[in-house]
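Students often ask why we bother encoding 3D structure as a string. The short answer is that it lets us treat folding as translation between two languages. Here is a chain of 261 residues written in the first language.
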Amino acid sequence: MSNPLDKFNMDWFRLDGKIAMVTGANQGLGMAYAVAFAKAGANLFIPHFTEDVSEIKALIEKEGRQVHFLRGDLTDKAYRKDCVDECMKQYGRIDILVNNAGASAFHDFDDYPDKYWEMCINLDFNAVYYLSKEVAHIMKAKGGGKIINIGSALSYTSDAKCPPYTAAKHGVIGITRNFANELGRFNIQTNAICPGFLATEVNAELRKDPAFYNKITNRIAAGRWGELDDLMGTMVFLASRASDYLNGVDINVDGGFFTVL
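And here it is in the second language, the structure alphabet:
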């Protein structure tokens, strides 16, 4: 009789031969997720909204991996289906889906524009649900897969002037748990990463404000803002065989922000 302890090895963290679809991976945090997958052995398919894909293309090809792109709007039902169809055309399978693409819009609460509410809810919440359902059909047919949703510190708390983003990121945790419940029996694991405060180009100006910077930094147990590589190991773990018995879980990658008052 074999010893189950003998089964485990570090290859469980490898993604060789896997196909990962990462939405919005041509910039920001999504770029880190895609590069992490490439380093672990996966090939990529990237749905994107903004035009330039040169940087992420070069980074993935540097790792000796393939990458294909399709530009469009994830709030469009036809585009979501096109993404799945094109990925299947290029690779014949989808093993990993990362619902990373998102947007936020800040405005005074009393007259928060309906157009901002609808834009954020449609991209940050509805697109996650509908694209995951499309991809789940593919994963069920092939015998399994990994769906990884991107939450936020605002999946647990709130901030002023961005009600739809807060609502959507709370909803992403609910979607994650629901999909885990619905799809677990098909060997599909659905989990979420909730990044904390990461130092990126997007928030460079905010970090120049001492009051804001110190307010956030003082609440991070690690005493620093995160870097992109702080997310990469957790993402590879959730996409790999090493996490096969993890389902419906949200992981805070935040340096301890959520633990500190």
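Translate back mentally: The mean pLDDT is 96. Keep this in mind for the problem set.
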